[in-house]
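Input/output pair, single chain:
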Amino acid sequence: MCIRDRFRTHAFAEIKSKNEKMDMKEVMKMIAEQWKGLKEPEKEKWNADLKKAKEKYDAELKDYEARFGPVVKRKSRDSSNKSSEEEGSAGGRKRPKKGASDKGEGKSHSAEAEGKQARSATTEGKRGK
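Output:
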């Protein structure tokens, strides 16, 4: 995350709380104007805040890796764009079918069929009355 992103996150919440109905384009314009209006010492405060957050993240990551092993980093989006364009899918992966779960969680096919049978029996019972 860069300095402007941290500032934008902070400023967005502040501006949006005062102007709830303002559209996103106008809010972003106001944030950009505020950032441009900041003097260097104020920008340095945001930079120091970013450095502190980065140090905290690095320390937590080091602790995590000491306990659970190294973190496997994913390829950046830029490097995966080429393969996704060539393969015609997002990130080279195929999307699951609608309603399907990536980990096979949820109802099984037989459970779904039982649910459909129960609904159709209920519907038939209402028609007969």
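The two ends are 64 Å apart (CA to CA). Residues 83-90 have pLDDT under 50 and may be disordered.
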